[in-house]
Amino acid sequence: MHRTQSSEAMIFLSGLAGILLVLTAEAKVGKSSQGKYCSETEECLLFDLICETDSYELRHYSSVKWVSTNETGYIMDFALMRAFKRLFGYITGQNMQGKKIEMTAPVVVKVIDQKSFWEERVFRMSFLLPSEHQMTPPKPTDDKVFIQEWPEMKVYVKSYGGWMTSLSDKMKASSLCSSLDSAGSQYNKEYHYAVGYDSPMKLFNRHNEVWLVAEGDPECSSSSEEEYSFFN
Fold first, then answer.
1. Angle 191-138-35 (CA atoms, 0-180°, nearest 5)?
2. Rounded Cα gap, residues 155 and 58, in angstroms
3. Is 199 left (phi over 0), alpha (psi -120 to 50) or beta?
4. Which of 3, 11, 61, 205 has its CA 20 to 30 A from that of 163?
5. Closest CA to 64 of 127, 123, 111
6. What's residue 21's pLDDT?
7. Are 107 and 195 within 8 A, CB to CB?
8. So which residues are the signal peptide here (predicted)?
9. Side-chain half-sphere of 128: how many Cα atoms within 13 Å?
10. HSE-up of 95 (CA within 13 Å, CB side)?
11. How many alpha carbons fall within 13 Å on the CB side of residue 124?
12. Low-confidence ranges of the chain (pLDDT < 50)
């Protein structure tokens, strides 16, 4: 009798753990209706807004998995065209399971800060994997495409409209750096993320962002701090 109750308890706990795991996954990658800026995909990356100022936001992102590829070039715009084609191939079936994978938002590009204009750089473009593929992503068939798991992180974010280009990204990244330097905030100065939420077909009300990874004890100096969850 006790053994049967013990077995039932183990089954219940296992089921509960599974439910919690699913809820955790959905809390990282969820329905676009929960996101401000996701209008063209069913799922997007969710976050907790820690605080904000007139110039930037401070957000917390949980650990999630991405499919990524590196592309070398002098100008971001040209490098990203090649990188996007490679990742698009992956989500349209160029993987070991031949699965078609839903597009998500945002598309994120890791941009190494340029020491000189003539310096060739490596740009890493990443597509967020949908919640159903977060646990076991299909393996890419292209050896230039790989799966990576990002750790949880806090990032300073500056939003802007229009088109994300090398020039607009550089200007907004510089502006965000200036705001953070003035506030005495610590952040990683070796690279930033260029973030886009919209497809090339969307002509108006576009949304882009610059992310800088926070270091030390991040805060929004001289802000009207609003600590609340993005999910609420």
1. 55
2. 6
3. beta
4. 61
5. 127
6. 38
7. yes
8. 1-27
9. 26
10. 21
11. 15
12. 1-27, 223-232
For residues 92 and 100, what is the distance between their CA atoms, to the nearest angstrom? 5
pLDDT value of residue 222: 54
| CA 180 remoteness from chain centre | 21
Burial of 83 (0-12, 13-18, 19+ CB in 10 A): buried
Token digits of residue 143: 């050896």
The per-residue pLDDT for range 144-178, each reduced to its tens digit, is 999 999 999 999 999 999 999 999 999 999 999 99
Say which amino acid occupies 116: S
**Tokens 């753990």 sit at which residue?**
17
For the entire predicted model, the pTM comes to 0.83
**Residue position matching structure tokens 């991405």:** 66
Strand partners, 147: 67
| Closest C-alpha among 168, 76, 158 to residue 124 | 76
Q: Which residue type is seen at 71? A: E
| CB within 8 Å of 57: residues ≥ 6 apart | 49, 50, 51, 156, 157, 159, 220
Domains of the chain plus CATH, in order, are: 24-213 (3.20.80.10)
* Amino acid residing at 99: K
Residue holding tokens 């605080």? 51
At 174 the pLDDT is 96
48 with 230: CB under 8 angstroms? Answer: yes
